[in-house]
Structures are given as structure tokens and as C-alpha cells.
Amino acid sequence: VDQSKIESTLLSVIAEKTGYPAEMLELGMDMEADLGIDSIKRVEIFGAMTAAHPEVQGINPQELAELRTLQQIVQYISGKAGGTASPSVPAAVVTPAAPPPPTPPANGVSKTPPATLAPAGVDQSKIESTLLSVIAEKTGYPAEMLELGMDMEADLGIDSIKRVEIFGAMTAAHPEVQGINPQELAELRTLQQIVQYISGKAGAAPEVAEGKKQ
Q1: CB of 83 within 8 A of CB of 74?
Q2: Closest listed residue to residue 5, CA positions, set 44, 53, 39, 37
Q3: Fewer Cβ neighbours under 10 Å: the N or C end of the chain?
């Protein structure tokens, strides 16, 4: 089995499923962190790969879930197709695709303060624009394509690691945000919920400071 053929099939399938140009893809890229490929799209990609290479047999879904980079996938599939002597399944990888956070209650995220709780003086539109620009920077999506109703995981493929980076950048840009609870953050799904939550946590400190001036 020609491993380079498996590589080219993988790159073309990923280009088709994600919209990234094939020439932009590199084998060292991480499916989740670099390409935003969620577990559903991952299954579609492996389905297309096995359809293109029927000689691939004995694939273990659990092993597949542990593969992170395109190179690891090529080596694994080559191993199952008889291409390389041994597949390179990284034993050290202990962070398979993160399970989705718990489904919020039907009436919305109960712990999230509504935007109306944001103290006076906090410019919510500023928080919105910061969030959109941070997400654009971290994911590669154009800011003008982002909408506040989008789901971080389902629509934007933002995993738990990238989520932490985004919230870190948000609190750095808005030092007035205090008292954030990581557990509450993990339950937020849409960009709108994040804006409302951060708005609720922002502005409290400036208000106290003004009171002390008297």
C-alpha cells in the first residue's frame, strides 16, 4: 500500500469536509486544535477514508479517537492496510476528544446571569466585539462570519482547550471581570451566553471604586 496515496486521500477528504484548501493542510496539524474537526466530522472523514481504501480492516474506534494529528491517522490507516510495519498509536495521548459539556436545562443556562444584571457603565457591545475578535484569532474564522447565536462546539468546533484560551484572552482584555466560575463557564454554549455572563461579572469593581471616591 502506497502511504503517499493514503496521505493524499486524507488531505482531499479533510479539504472537502472542512472547506480548508488542501494545499494549506499539513500532516503535523492537530484535527481538533488546528482544524476544528469535531467528533461528528471525524467520523465522516474516517468513513470516507475506509470507502476510498477498502483494504483497510480492523480499525478500532477507540484507537481512532486517540489520534490527534493527520500524520498519526496516516500511519494508523497505513498499518491497518498493510502499508507500514506497525501503526503509530500514541500511547502518551491521554486526552481523547473531550465529551460535550452537560446539556443545559430547558429554560437556558440557569446559572448564567442575564445581560440585564450587567452594572451600569459596562459597554456590552465592547465585550461582544472583543469576544468575536478573539474567536476569529483563535479559530481562523472571519469575524464578520461569526454570530452571537452560534454554538461554540457544534458550530465553531471549539474544544475545551481552545475555550480556555479564549476565556483567558477575554479576562486579559477586560480586567474588570471578576469572580468567574470555571464550572459555570463550561456550561455556556453560545457566544451570546458568554457575552451575558462576562457582562454580568464585569463592571462591579469600577462601581465600588466610584463609591470609595466619596
Answers
A1: no
A2: 53
A3: C
Q: Left, alpha or beta for 66 (phi > 0: left; psi -120 to 50: alpha)? A: alpha
Assign 12 to helix, strand or coil. Answer: helix
Nearest to 152 by CA among 173, 126, 131: 131
145 vs 77, 132, 163, 171, CA distance in Å?
A: 35, 9, 19, 23
Measured CA to CA in angstroms, residue 174 lies from 92, 99, 161, 188, 206 at distances of 37, 29, 20, 19, 12
Answer for the pair 121, 197: CB distance below 8 angstroms, yes or no: no
**Which range has the worst mean pLDDT, 13-17, 34-38, 116-120?**
116-120
What is the CB-side half-sphere exposure of residue 135 using CA atoms within 13 A?
30
Query: How many Cα atoms occupy the beta-carbon half-sphere of 145 within 13 Å?
Result: 9
Give the three-class secondary structure for 97.
coil
